[in-house]
Amino acid sequence: MILMEAEMNKRTSLFLLVAILIATFGASVTQAQDATDLSLWVFVDRHGLFMQHQAERWNEANPDRPINLTYEQIDYTQMHDNLLSALLVGIGAPDLADVEIKKFATFTKGDLHFIPLESAIDPYRGDIIESRLAPYTAGGHNYGIDYHLGSFVMYYNTAILEAAGVDVNTLTTWDAYVEAGKKVTQDTDGDGSADVYMTSVETTDIFSAYALMLMMGGGTYNADGEIILESPENVAALQFLQDLVHTHGIARAASSGYHHSPEHFTDLIEGRTASLWMPQWYMTRFPDDMGSALADSAVVRPMPVFEEGGYTTTMGGGTGTVITDQIDPAKVDLAKEFLAFAKLTYEANVSLWTDLGFDPMRTDVYEDPALLIAMDDFMGEVPFTYIAAGLGNVAPEYTGPFYPEIATIFQTTALYDLIENQAPPADVLAAAVEELRAMGAEVGG
Questions:
Q1: Which residues pair with 72 in a beta bridge?
Q2: What does R_g of the chain's alpha carbons equal in angstroms?
Q3: For 39-149+317-367, CATH number?
């Protein structure tokens, strides 16, 4: 009898142990089985890693609705080509995909195969700089959410400016910038031509020109989806860019034509270029491409303004994450909620800086201690104090079906003709419009 009772107690204990194990581990097994799979294509591996980190945050905050996010990193051109092909044939696209700003308009020609995101974005509109949504908007719908604001800022070499008697903090207007540039630009080796310039401008990329066009109220498209290349604002912006080189004599064409060439980085390191304007993400080029060479002299400051009350900066570059229409309809709401969680929440915007080094779209995080840190690569200053100071009035950038073609025209012929051949800005823009018409673009006038 005692043996039977002992055996029963043993079985009862074993039963209880099994029950405890099921309760402890079975729930996680069930949860893992219930996780919703989401696929993502990226062309930058760091973007994929960032989104996976955000998926981990989502799962911690939403244990009842976990997701299993997997990403595939594909070469920039190949990824966009594969995505376009998959969407056109109706099979093979991922649930989510990164689409670079110059490529987005390609997907707006004909039927648009992305899911509108307004319902996910709406709760955050009061917290973000909404103009950042404009490049990924078509037909009145928001289709993509970016990884950063990409606001333009000025980068200065204070050693060069101070040697010329220029205080970097006084360069708040373009008029002041030009006058300072005349002091900075000089012939230091006595060969009769300047070898130190205030700035350099791109002739094979769009950033130098687009920033000025947008800050003057121009751009490539307007909010109604109309091409506005020949607008008076654009003519004035390109005239100003040309004058920096040929009238004021304080600028030259960037070495190899653009601000990402090794030769241009050498010009910055060796003190031949005292400043330039580029988006905030260009900050990463200083440690990544120039090492510590400029750590004791490089600073970030707000863009100069053309007039009081005008635009204080604009945005450059970008990558919007979209949801494709090949996603399982049962996953759409969850995917939209996750995308907003990953890109628009307060915590996500802090991570945009701490994980990626990008300026967030939410300005309320700019006073977060995680962002207000001194940076050795920028003279030990706190760059975000100056980035935030320039966000008073951010010029939007609108895109349209021929946005990629316009960028190509600027990169291949328009800016070269403007700077190297000194062609009148109005003629440069008229030639660009004629090229677009030949491609089938509808341009007024």
A1: 41
A2: 26
A3: 3.40.190.10
Question: Topology of 152-314+401-438 in CATH?
Answer: D-Maltodextrin-Binding Protein; domain 2 (3.40.190)
Helix axes 232-246, 207-215, angle to 10 degrees: 130
pLDDT-based confidence at residue 235 (cuts at 50, 70, 90): very high
Out of 24-33, 59-68, 249-258, 280-289, pick the least confident.
24-33
With beta carbons less than 8 A apart as the criterion, state whether 380 and 197 touch.
no
pLDDT (average), residues 228-242: 98
What are the backbone dihedrals phi and psi of residue 73, each rounded to the nearest 5 degrees, phi first? -95, 125
Q: Which of 15-29, 277-291, 310-324 has the lowest mean pLDDT?
A: 15-29
Q: Is 241 helix (H, G, I), strand (E, B) or coil?
A: helix
State the Cα angle at 430 between 427 and 433, rounded to 5°: 155
Residue whose entry in the numeric block shows the structure tokens 């195969």:
113
- Per domain, the residue ranges of the chain are 39-149+317-367, 152-314+401-438
Strands in 318-361 per DSSP E? 319-323
Give kind and range of the element (H or E) at residue 174. Answer: helix 174-184
Q: Compute the distance between CA of residue 284 and CA of residue 298 in angstroms, rounded to an integer.
A: 12
Given this chain, do its domains 39-149+317-367 and 152-314+401-438 carry the same CATH topology? yes
What pLDDT does 443 receive?
87
Q: Is 382 exposed, middle or buried (0-12, 13-18, 19+ CB in 10 A)?
A: middle
**H or E element, residue 276:** strand 273-279
- 268 pLDDT higher than 90: yes
Residues 186-203 pLDDT 10s: 988 888 788 999 999 999
Q: Which of 394, 214, 236 is nearest to 313 (CA)?
A: 394
For residue 276, the cross-strand partners are 155
Taking the C-alpha atoms of residue 330 and residue 55, their distance in angstroms, rounded to an integer, is: 18
